[in-house]
Amino acid sequence: MFWSVRRRVGGLFLLVGIGTTVVGVPALGAMTYAADVSSGSVLAATRTAIAAQIGVHVVFTAHSGSTGLTETIIADVGTKEGTETIIESSADVAIRVTPTFAYVSGNSSGLTRLFGMSSADAKELGRRWEAWKIGTSQYGTLESDLTMQSVSALLPRTKGTRVSTDRRHGTTLYVLTWTTPATTSIPKLSNSLAVAAQGPTLPISKSATASGGTKITTALSKWGEDVVVQAPPSDRILLPGKLGG
Predict the structure, then answer these.
(1) Do the domain assignments include residue 23?
(2) Residue 35: other Cβ atoms inside 10 A
């Protein structure tokens, strides 16, 4: 989730794919390492719980300590459709995925800085929506990023993951912690994922700190919401092939 067809590889967006996304949890109090559960059993239960859901609301914030930039992503993810709004300073991008088309729109700085569109294409598109039909590679990328099939990718591998328990607001949580090694495109991340220990074992929040000091937080809510995405008005859509990419 959250990687677009064109989006640049740089800045905070190195951290925005949901497979490496860091979905934020407030500072935890005293934690107790669970003796009667394992990280493997919690992860298995979480995958099963996610598979039974038809939608989820996600709010993601990443703040760079080095640049002072803050990026915010708000998304509603369904089984076959989803929406996403990305804001960084004055730049903005909106993405919609329906069962038949994927669409992107934004202001000039959003389309170029956040989505990786050329300046010429962004100028030509204006505030219209570029569209890709189901069956194209562009549609497939956005559909996989903005539908429920991407959500399980936020879970870590069992190896190297520790589980503890915590109580917050009268609710018991499992807290999974692990480290993601640095790659050529993503810095080292220290991660913490909180999932419900009562009822369906669904992720509630996740946080991470990058080795460069970037702080990332995300909250997941409205599990089971019915996500219905409306296509933009037909006179505001620019079909594939009309731009340079």
Answers:
(1) yes
(2) 7
